[in-house]
Inverse folding.
């Protein structure tokens, strides 16, 4: 595969990664020509002169421990901004998570429970009121590049609110042969390169003219699903390993997944788990090592795109006026609890990286506050002085961005996964439950009271001992179930409650 129009920093970054992952990033200057874009919406409103810009990098299926391999993210964002060590994707699957980020609402309110089926994908989502339309109403130029919700109809009109609606059409996880909504089509190419170029092009177009909000929704490190793929046995659901661009094809040889050091990896005893998962076989280490390495290599190109964006913002004089967000739609399991993938409510899948750099954010800080993707939407709306035209469910954390010790009201977070089957008693749902600072609790809807889990992370941080039927935790279980029932249909501020102290387990 050739290296198409790669930006000038490529060779340098490859050396940085191979020599020392944590090395200081050098200054870079992109030289790519602007690509063809589709301008779908223009507004005559002018935002306030001091309105900040926002650039969001959204990866696909990235683990929090993957941050350790991205030198530009570490040096340009983490060392100059705030890292959230307890960021959660409360519905950890592609479409539901992205719908949450666009709407600031849980699935019970935005309608997207899954990637497909009666409650899934693009058709389940109403785009008439999103952070894009609110930003447009406030006078922002807006762009979305890359991954959208699955199954978007190429003959449908662009979603409202986006000045540049530049999404990838199906198959949207093809790294080499891909087409954008406006018709730009590429073969034997590399998708991260093109998303990088298109993001920088919008910065060059709008800098100094109007405030902008750009979502750079990258494919990496998702499993590769080319249209012609039949699967090669590595990865999940028959996909192929994500390909690296040539500059990183040999990076980090011999890398061992950090998941291998987790006591939950190939969990020794699964008998305490609910019946649908207790029979999982142990997983072979070799394919997981190949998968992990391929994922990291694909992320190195996203890391380079971050460097190009920061350089473009600095070159155009916009860096000090821009909030840069780096996060993922969900986490990913690499053998923990004998599982590989997402769409489960375990720690490594719920956890997502979240780093924010921008005006007033103290450099090199970390916050332990529990925040979610829905909270991120509420926070961006506050920072940009937007007026949402519907009720949003997130609790903004603007105060924490200036003081990492600042906490919020909420002590219990709703978490859930969806189902495709509309015929069950509770259609559209699989697991639903709650997280607190100490406990993880969820039940599999439609499968009875013993199908689920309760973990006491204070004593069991790796979630090995399922306490759902443990009599010592009966009072705890009842209170967590009560909180779930209160939150199950919540909306707005009702989703962000302080329930107070939990009962203690019996001795």
């Amino acid at each position: 595969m050739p290296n198409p129009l790669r930006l000038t920093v490529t060779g340098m970054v490859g050396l940085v990664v191979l020599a020392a992952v944590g090395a200081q990033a050098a200054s870079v200057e992109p030289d790519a020509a602007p690509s063809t874009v589709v301008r779908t919406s223009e507004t005559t409103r002018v935002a306030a002169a001091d309105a900040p810009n926002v650039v969001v990098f959204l990866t696909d299926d990235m683990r929090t421990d993957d941050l350790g391999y991205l030198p530009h993210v570490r040096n340009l964002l983490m060392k100059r901004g705030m890292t959230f060590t307890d960021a959660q994707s409360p519905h950890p699957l592609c479409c539901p998570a992205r719908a949450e980020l666009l709407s600031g609402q849980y699935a019970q309110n935005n309608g997207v429970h899954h990637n497909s089926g009666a409650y899934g994908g693009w058709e389940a989502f109403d785009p008439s009121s999103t952070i894009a339309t609110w930003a447009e109403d406030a006078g922002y130029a807006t762009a979305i590049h890359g991954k959208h919700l699955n199954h978007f109809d190429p003959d449908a009109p662009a979603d409202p609110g986006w000045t540049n609606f530049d999404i990838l059409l199906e198959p949207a996880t093809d790294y080499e042969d891909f087409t954008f909504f406006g018709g730009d089509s590429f073969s034997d190419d590399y998708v991260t390169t093109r998303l990088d170029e298109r993001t920088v092009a919008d910065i060059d177009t709008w800098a100094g003219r109007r405030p902008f909000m750009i979502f750079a929704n990258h494919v990496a490190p998702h499993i590769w699903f080319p249209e012609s793929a039949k699967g090669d046995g590595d990865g999940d659901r028959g996909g192929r390993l994500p390909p690296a661009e040539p500059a990183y094809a040999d990076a980090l040889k011999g890398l061992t997944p950090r998941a291998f050091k987790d006591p939950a990896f190939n969990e020794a005893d699964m008998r305490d788990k609910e019946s649908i998962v207790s029979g999982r076989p142990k997983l072979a280490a070799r394919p997981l090592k190949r998968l992990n390495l391929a994922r990291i290599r694909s992320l190195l190109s996203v890391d380079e795109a971050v460097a190009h964006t920061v350089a473009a913002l600095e070159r155009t004089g916009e860096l000090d006026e821009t909030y840069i967000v780096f996060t993922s739609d969900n986490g990913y399991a690499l053998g923990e609890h004998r599982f590989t993938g997402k769409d489960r409510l375990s720690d490594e899948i719920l956890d997502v990286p979240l780093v924010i750099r921008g005006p007033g954010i103290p450099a090199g800080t970390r916050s332990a506050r529990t925040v979610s993707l829905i909270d991120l939407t509420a926070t961006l709306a506050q920072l940009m002085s937007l007026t949402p035209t519907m009720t949003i469910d997130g609790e903004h954390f603007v105060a924490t961005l200036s003081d990492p010790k600042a906490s919020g009201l909420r002590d219990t977070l709703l978490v859930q996964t969806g189902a495709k089957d509309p015929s069950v008693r509770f259609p559209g749902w699989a697991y639903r439950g709650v997280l607190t600072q100490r406990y993880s609790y969820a039940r599999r809807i439609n499968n009875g009271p013993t199908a689920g889990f309760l973990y006491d992370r204070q004593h069991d941080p790796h979630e090995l001992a399922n306490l759902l039927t443990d009599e010592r935790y009966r009072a705890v279980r009842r209170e967590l179930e009560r909180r779930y029932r209160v939150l199950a249909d919540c909306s707005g501020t009702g989703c962000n409650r302080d329930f107070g102290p939990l009962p203690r387990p019996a001795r």
